[in-house]
Amino acid sequence: MLQLDALSKTYKTGDAALKNVSLRVPKGQIVGLIGPSGAGKSTLIRCINRLVEPSSGKVLLGDVDLAALGARQLRQQRRRIGMIFQEYALVERLTVMENVLSGRLGYVPFWRSWLRRFPPDDIRNAFRLLDRVGLLEHADKRADALSGGQRQRVGIARALAQEPELLLVDEPTASLDPKTSRQIMRLLTEICEERGLPAIVNIHDVPLAQQFMQRIVGLRAGQVVFDGPPEQLTENVLTTIYGAEDWNAMRRGDEEQAEAEADAARRLEAIAR
Ligand SMILES: Nc1ncnc2c1ncn2[C@@H]1O[C@H](COP(=O)(O)OP(=O)(O)OP(=O)(O)O)[C@@H](O)[C@H]1O
């Protein structure tokens, strides 16, 4: 379980990006983090694994306060957290399999990773994960030969290879088209359910969050202003989170997307006839 206690972050520039955020994420729960640009979503995700140093507060993963650890202990504890990025963060010239195995780097001795001699169990597990994300037949392809959706599948398999206790997911679908975005969100949520793995997903796209998340946390100016199930995300609540202007702009965007999808479906139908 993850518990944030009065977590705050003020950057050197004086920007108070997080103000006293407290949050509990139990085992198996997948939480969508929404909010306007600059609300503090990335800062929150990055404070958890200390890619950004919190200014104050606690980050408890189980009974370990990650915010209080020295560098060496932090390195060890970070293995417990899998991270999935918007831009995939793959090593482009390595194969899919090698990228997945790189999730094991925190566990194998340096010489083994340098010689790329991973233990057989790790390799077997990596094949299983590639099968789970639907990329088994691509194991030997270079990462730069894959589509965006396939790359994100590699990113997911790599994070899972780490055998994490928590997943932090930073805008996983921001570089993907709407259909691929839904496929990736479906895969992520199914995998979290299968493994009882808690996750925090920073997600720009509100309809996508409503469709896939069990719980939604709305941030505004560094504070939690909504915390509840997607059904409670009414227009009023969205206006509280985004302000009227932002939310209306986003809704227009959503209509445009829906129109584009309907248009594409009509054209496909016409071709099929
Ligand atoms: N490295 C930094 N140095 C100084 N200020 C920062 C830094 N990173 C973020 N901020 C500030 O902290 C606040 C929160 O930023 P953050 O990137 O966490 O928001 P966000 O909700 O993830 O936004 P977006 O949706 O645009 O990615 C903003 O005011 C931003 O300008």
Give a structural overview:
The chain is built from nine helices and ten strands. The protein has helices spanning 41-48, 71-78, 96-101, 110-114, 120-132, 148-161, 178-195, 206-212, 235-272, and strands at residues 2-10, 16-25, 30-34, 56-61, 64-65, 81-84, 166-170, 199-202, 215-220, 223-228. The chain folds into two domains: 2-80 and 166-272, Rossmann fold (3-Layer(aba) Sandwich), CATH 3.40.50; 90-163, no CATH class. The strands form two sheets. It has a six-stranded mixed β-sheet, with helices on both faces. A four-stranded antiparallel β-sheet has the order 2-1-4-5. The relative contact order is 0.16. The radius of gyration is 20 Å and the shape is globular. Helix 6 runs parallel beside helix 7 (178-195). Strand 7, helix 7 (178-195) and strand 8 (199-202) form a beta-alpha-beta unit. By secondary structure, the protein is an alpha/beta fold. It starts with a strand and ends with a helix. The site of adenosine-5'-triphosphate has 12 residues, from helix 1.
Draw up the topology in text.
Layout: E1 2-10, E2 16-25, E3 30-34, H1 41-48, E4 56-61, E5 64-65, H2 71-78, E6 81-84, H3 96-101, H4 110-114, H5 120-132, H6 148-161, E7 166-170, H7 178-195, E8 199-202, H8 206-212, E9 215-220, E10 223-228, H9 235-272
Parallel strand pairs: 3-8, 3-9, 6-7, 7-8
Antiparallel strand pairs: 1-2, 1-4, 4-5, 9-10
Helix pairs in contact: 5-6, 6-7
Bound molecules: adenosine-5'-triphosphate (ATP).
